[in-house]
């Protein structure tokens, strides 16, 4: 075997072990007994130690030195393997294992603290997570910007300064549009009690409507919806609320966007360094365009309105147009995952600034709740009422995902670019969506973007699909047009 072939074979086994680690995480969120958390932490630490040893194996450096890529795909595989190797050798193995152990335990403690509305119970383990992630960031940054090193784990080629510039450009327009919208009457929402089993049945139907392959996936419930896995085993979760069926429906569509991306990556990339979404920003572009530009469009909500009435009977709304307004209504709220399109990015900007301050040491963990509450009041104009609506609402920091939050808004920006290009190519898109037919839209995304996995760098992935470099302008134009029409601005 050539050096290239040996390296790819070794990488295939590493990827397979990574999938096993991911499955442990999925089980922890969906089916694991609550009392198993300490043991699961040990299990996660053990497999992370194996993975770290493989990723930093000296043989990888030797193979990379002599391997010759046979084609463009091979060159991209070498690029991604080299990136993972260079990252792995910077982080000591015992630190990687300790992070895996502590974040696994912290996840359970976060869930309990959130249920109990007890920030104090969570802060000690969060303090440990932050300290460990600072150590990791320092190792990765090698004297550079610590937070940039963390962002690079999720959106390579983008810095915190790049993100801040995008956010600074978007914020005035978002704040102005929100102010104009909130001066108008709020549309009525759905009303009644919505059976949770019926919600899950409808969620699975909608998942299939958006092309999610149930023979290679499943839909389960979790505290915090997520997608897990790639290739032939891609699982998603959602959540239910008997008073709010949209929580379930749109969490499902969102996660289907993630899951469909992974399912649609070319089989030739299975269990290789290219066999997953290229970045979290690009990943989020798929979940957001599925959820918002497609799933919350007037055309699709017309179809969904009929499905809702068939599933639940009377829902408190009597027309498709009123249902469209209900799906897209802008109102005060605390929860990022339940936020309307208009205000969602403001939630991300808050988290971006706070976690940058945590990582730099400008904000200490003990002061996080007060800092969150002060910032939320300043940004949204009303106070946080309880921790589960404030700094305990998201799982991300408990599992060490610092640098992840800004990719949600990058994904919105990318989705805006993709949606603009999609509508240029599929001129009868609304007519299809009105029939509950997403084949042309999801097929376009599969053909233009999803099938390639990690073949191209994130920015180049969007350029290839949308035909131009990404900018926030299509997203802002879309939001202005959509909400101006709904609210008669």
How is this structure best described in words?
- The termini are far apart.
- The mean pLDDT is 96.
- The protein has two domains: 3-144, no CATH class; 160-486, Neurolysin, domain 3 (Orthogonal Bundle), CATH 1.10.1370.
- The chain has helices at 3-30, 37-55, 58-66, 72-90, 93-116, 119-141, 146-151, 160-182, 196-209, 245-264, 280-294, 298-312, 320-327, 341-360, 368-380, 406-425, 429-433, 439-448, 458-466, 473-486, and strands at 217-221, 227-230, 233-238.
- The longest helix has 28 residues, at 3-30.
- Strands 1-3-2 form a three-stranded mixed beta sheet, sandwiched between helices.
- The protein has 489 residues and is mainly alpha-helical.
- The radius of gyration is 22 Å and the shape is globular.
- Helix content is 64%, strand content 3%.
- A hairpin with a 2-residue loop joins strand 2 and strand 3 (233-238).
- It contains 20 helices and three strands.
Question: Helices and strands in order, then pairings?
Answer:
Blueprint: H1 3-30, H2 37-55, H3 58-66, H4 72-90, H5 93-116, H6 119-141, H7 146-151, H8 160-182, H9 196-209, E1 217-221, E2 227-230, E3 233-238, H10 245-264, H11 280-294, H12 298-312, H13 320-327, H14 341-360, H15 368-380, H16 406-425, H17 429-433, H18 439-448, H19 458-466, H20 473-486
Parallel strand pairs: 1-3
Antiparallel strand pairs: 2-3
Helix pairs in contact: 1-2, 1-3, 2-5, 5-6, 8-14, 8-20, 9-10, 10-11, 11-16, 12-13, 14-15, 14-16, 16-20
**What's the average pLDDT?**
96
- Sequence of secondary-structure elements: HHHHHHHHHEEEHHHHHHHHHHH
Based on the structure given, which CATH architecture of the largest domain is correct? Orthogonal Bundle
What sort of overall outline do the alpha carbons produce when their principal axes are compared?
Answer: globular
Enzyme class: hydrolase
InterPro entries: Peptidase_M32_Taq (IPR001333)
Catalytic activity: Release of a C-terminal amino acid with broad specificity, except for -Pro
Keywords: Carboxypeptidase, Hydrolase, Metal-binding, Metalloprotease, Protease
